[in-house]
Design a protein that fits this description.
This protein is α/β, with parallel strands linked by helices. It has helices at 41-48, 119-123, 126-139, 156-167, 181-187, 200-203, 216-222, 241-246, 251-260, 262-271, 284-295, 312-320; strands spanning 2-6, 15-19, 29-39, 61-62, 66-74, 86-90, 102-106, 110-112, 147-150, 171-176, 191-194, 207-212, 226-234, 274-277, 303-308, 327-331. Strands 3, 5, 6, 7, 8, 15 and 16 form a seven-stranded mixed β-sheet that branches. A six-stranded parallel β-sheet has the order 11-10-9-12-13-14, with helices on both faces. A three-stranded antiparallel β-sheet has the order 2-1-4, with no helix packed on it. The model has no long low-confidence stretch (mean pLDDT 95).
Length: 337
């Protein structure tokens, strides 16, 4: 089968489309005929070696963290799925493998694909969807009528987070470029800050939560927007010590996270607020909840551009420009099954 593999840490020159054996599902796993796979910033961070301390690789490594496809075979002990069903999933972080014609997925990480989505649309949901879901409901514990600022609402995580938050009854402000204004309005944002012309911290105050998807100065400025004692959660900042526990890492990684997050934690403490970083974890049950919202028409998927599997390097390059409005997808096979 065809597989997009990383031969070693580096740039796009380290990527190759190789022929590899079709994997065999183990206990509790599904073999999936991949129809489409989502490309995400974490993929080029893995390629570059930026996640090497917490995600060391053995090369060659097939990349890809989310997919949509059809169940080809059930591993021992699997129940709740049938051969021929359309599913979508966030694959195990240590295993990866979505950028291929076939992939093995833990059944606990998969969910039935929303019937009203194409494979390309569905493939872009798991990673961003679970990230947004876990930020809002696991970390922030968002409640109806609370006010939340979601940065970069035109992006993959931000766009889904706006829709989840509105469905939960929250008041949502977001930062967006003028080009993304219509998109975030369609998602239901109550207040839109044009970050090119306004500083959000001078416009917004007394918010219950912030979900940061930008990092750097945007993250630091976010501490001035929320109530004392409340939380800013980021997926673009740096991990803090609690994150090591979340991902089952030991004292060494905890010490590294303590050191690299020192500046951010000090700024949060000075502002009287809390800072958390999220490493999303695969969860088929949460993905099923998201699928239900999509089928009910309460959440919409947005695809920016689709590339064929053989054009993976072009997909990476396009995503790295930062201009995508919606998800970037690799098409592995055409059509619906």
């Amino acid at each position: 089968m065809k597989s997009v593999q990383l031969l070693g840490y580096g740039g796009n020159e380290a990527l190759r489309v190789n022929q590899v054996p079709v994997p065999e599902p183990g206990a509790g796993q599904l073999l999936v005929k991949v129809m489409a796979a989502g490309v995400n910033p974490v993929d080029y961070k893995i390629r570059d070696g930026k996640l090497k301390p917490i995600l060391p690789l053995r090369f060659p490594q097939t990349l890809g963290g989310e997919l949509a496809g059809v169940v080809e075979k059930l591993g021992p002990g699997v129940s709740g799925f049938n051969v021929g069903e359309s599913i979508f999933a966030r694959v195990d972080k240590q295993q990866m493998g979505a950028f291929a014609e076939y992939a093995v997925v833990d059944a606990a990480h998969a969910a039935r694909m929303p019937s009203n989505l194409s494979f390309e649309e569905a493939a872009g949901i798991p990673l961003a969807g679970l990230t947004a879901w876990q930020c809002l409901f696991e970390v922030l514990k968002l409640q109806p009528k609370q006010k939340i600022l979601i940065h970069a609402g035109g992006g993959g995580v931000g766009g889904l987070a706006i829709q989840f938050a509105k469905n939960a009854g929250a008041y949502v402000a977001t930062t967006a470029s003028p080009a993304a204004k219509a998109v975030v309005e369609a998602y239901g944002a109550d207040e839109i800050i044009n970050y090119r012309e306004e500083k959000f911290e001078t416009v917004l105050s007394d918010y219950d939560h912030v979900l940061d998807t930008v990092g750097d100065d945007t993250l630091l400025r976010s501490f001035g927007v929320i109530k004392k004692g409340h939380t800013v959660v980021s997926v673009a900042g740096v991990p803090e010590p609690q994150t090591a526990k979340d991902i089952d890492k030991g004292l060494l990684i905890k010490s590294i996270f303590w050191a690299i997050s020192s500046k951010i934690r000090k700024a949060a403490k000075k502002a009287g607020v809390h800072y958390r970083y999220l490493f999303m974890h695969p969860d088929g049950k949460q993905l099923s909840e998201i699928a239900k919202l999509i089928e009910e028409g309460k959440v919409k998927a947005k695809v920016d551009r689709v590339f064929d599997l053989e054009k993976a390097t072009e997909a990476f390059s396009y995503l790295e420009t930062g201009h995508a409005k919606g998800k970037v997808i690799l098409r592995v096979r055409s059509g619906r099954i």
